[in-house]
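Retro notes
What went well: the complex prediction finally ran end to end.
Inputs used:
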Amino acid sequence: MSALEPTKLVRPRASRDWSAADPGTAKSVAAALRRADFGDRLRSLALAAPLLVLLALSFGIPIVLLLSRAVYDPTIADALPQTSQALRGWNGTGLPDDAAFLALAADLRSNQAKGTAYELAKSLNARLPGARSQVLKTVRQLEAADRPPLEVMKAVPFWSAPGTWPVIESGTHSVTSFYLLSALDLRWNADGGIERVPPEQAIFVQVFMRTFFVAAAVTLATLILGFPLAYLIASVPKGLAAILIVAVLLPFWTSILVRTAAWTVLLQKFGLVNDLLLWLGVADDRLDLMYSRIGLIIAMTHIQLPFTLLPIYSVMRTIQPSQMKAAYSLGAKPFTAFRRVYLPQVFPGVMAGCLLTFILCLGYYITPALIGGASDQLISNFIASYVNVELNWEMAAALSFILLVFTLALFGIFARILGLDRLKLV
Amino acid sequence: MKITKARLFAFAAATAFITMGNAAFADELSIMASGGAWQDAQRKAWFEPFSKETGIKIVEQEYLGDLGKVKAMVDTGNVPIDLVTVETATVLQGCDAGILERLDYSKIAPREKFIEGSALDCGVGLDAYGDVLAYDPNVLKEAPASVLDIFDTTKFPGKRAMRKFPAQNLEWALMADGVAAADVYEVLATPEGVNRAFKKLDTIKQDIVWWDAGAQPPQLLASKEVVMTTAWNGRIQNAIDKDGAPFKIVWNNQILEYDMIAIPKGAKNPDLAYKYLAYISQPEINAKLASYITYGPVRIDAASFVAPDALPKLPNAPDHMTAYLVADTEFWGDYGEDLVKRFNAWLAQ
């Protein structure tokens, strides 16, 4: 590939004056350089390999596996092989032929024999409320075997109801869009189009909006509080700055649960904040700060403040005070100097701090659960409830997937506007 | 006599330990319960006497009653617990999802000896508790006559607390709207019935503070955050008896439920687990819990063994059984997930 053998090369990095050589050699030197760099990179990659493997095993693969549940749910397809076969020719409207009923009866019986009837019932119930008891009832009647299976199936009205068979049919496909659509308050309608769910069942779009609103409000609040504080810390003498930094960091080192519980004590109806407000005469009556949006934002702002402040502070520290003086000496008014000399330099720190806080806020769980009211629950609370209480991990995966996509998109936009290398994190 | 017996056990345990090597692990029974005053009561009534009698060490764990934790254990094949306490609706769910073992009642006690609905395929009843109304008479001058008075904001103004869960609240809403207790679940199975229940809840939505954990209602009453709250009767009675709280319980229109215990699939010591289940399902042992927390026994023949001073505080004491509803677990198995979603959507509106 090259005239210059790699062995003859005296470590390209050491000999930087190759540019003087003729173009052909320069090109091959550049190639050799790349190759040598590649070797270097390979070596550093090898050093980082244990970490990368650990990340892949403990982070990457589980996330992919869990998120894949949002679109891959083979429970019904696995449980109803004969029905899948029988429904292949069905046009999706009206009732399928008797063969499909018989296939379903056979599948139900084989599920009962394998002990998977309950799992099937639960999985169908997630898509069609009320299906659980109907499946179990039918299974019991089929087992009694005192009538031909077709008669049993036709005698249970559920199996001849209009909505039942389309759900079964959609369940026989292992790859499903059901959960992702549900996570956006959408569903397939009878004509094969996508429509909004009825308003009394629509919930997730609202919760996503609420999550973004709370995250934005908290980000703004931390910026308003954090920017002047960071400026103060950056401009006072070293000793005082150290004390202030510790004051900021002290709560940062406390567990988030403890801080949230502390806010519960402060914010409750007969708590310190209400006592103070009443004593000062600011409020005439005790305010409902607990279980409210405002209480949630106060507590989250307190917890997030260091995340916004520290990147800003780390940038401010590097700005020489002499630059502002130079601006004044050139005739700039204080605000102009601030806007045109100071702000552009701290901007990457501000963006980094805000981005960090905003993204962390999107995943808040404990604080909304303890301090927020019922209408202040964020998307993480719903994900947790689907994982822990409903045991519907498919739905949890779908919600997580959408949250992840939003977060990555947001991060991408920031990175695009600002350039990743300019983001200054602490 | 007793000492000799205990010594014998100790000796036997010691020998087993020496000869079998890992017998110390084999003779450990790991139980996960939902903590608080209820777990303390189980420890005194059942865990400690059982250990004393059999030499089997009980290792306790706590959780919030969320079956997701158990599912994760079963799915990954690493089940460090042998028994887990669960709510009735959760038993059904866990049974369906295949994460709880189907019980062999021949190793426990005859199934017909349990109150109806308290011996299920995957879970056996521990106690009966009531979803009741509690209030502080120092705050409310007039006593509520029924749980349904929680819907009366003109007579009882102020914040009231309810469990952040559709079960019980929807039943009470329908009853407050005039549906007879016997028809509640039939009405609730129809879309119109669900709408009707939510419409009734709408009338007090602005005044509701929601609770998640059983320990919260007494705290909410004590901090005067609310004037009345729905609660599990034992938690309130515990605050009255142990902390001297001035609370009162309203039993009229209570909803009766059962606490259950189950074996997770893949538990390492099923034999020990069955031994424990058989132990606590004896009528005289089953009745002992009532001495430590005011939850009633589930064995039909256990009533006569309940300590006389505990009896009047139990949810299934005759005085409290004038107007009540027994929670329908089959109904919640069918419609639970859908109603939870609808409930959450309603909360968010």
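What we learned: Chain B has two domains: 2-128+258-313, 130-256+322-348.
What to try next: split runs per interface for comparison.
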